[in-house]
Amino acid sequence: MENLVNLKQFRQKMKLTQAAAAEGIGIDQRQWNRYENGINELPLRYFKLICTTYKVNADWLLGIAEEKENV
User: Fold this and answer.
1) How far is 4 from 6, CA to CA, in rounded Å?
2) Looking at residues 53-71, what average pLDDT do you find?
């Protein structure tokens, strides 16, 4: 999966630390940091968890759509 261009923006809008966002989907903060900074690609299972857990628009998270939902 390509780099999630709005992952950091999403987290900041939700007022979550990297640790809190990571905990919400069951991963370590260091791994979240790698995804957020484009060092590692986010696996699809975590992408889905982010979208469903935090009710964020998948297209917006990918940078495809300008509008976001519930963020």
Assistant:
1) 6
2) 78
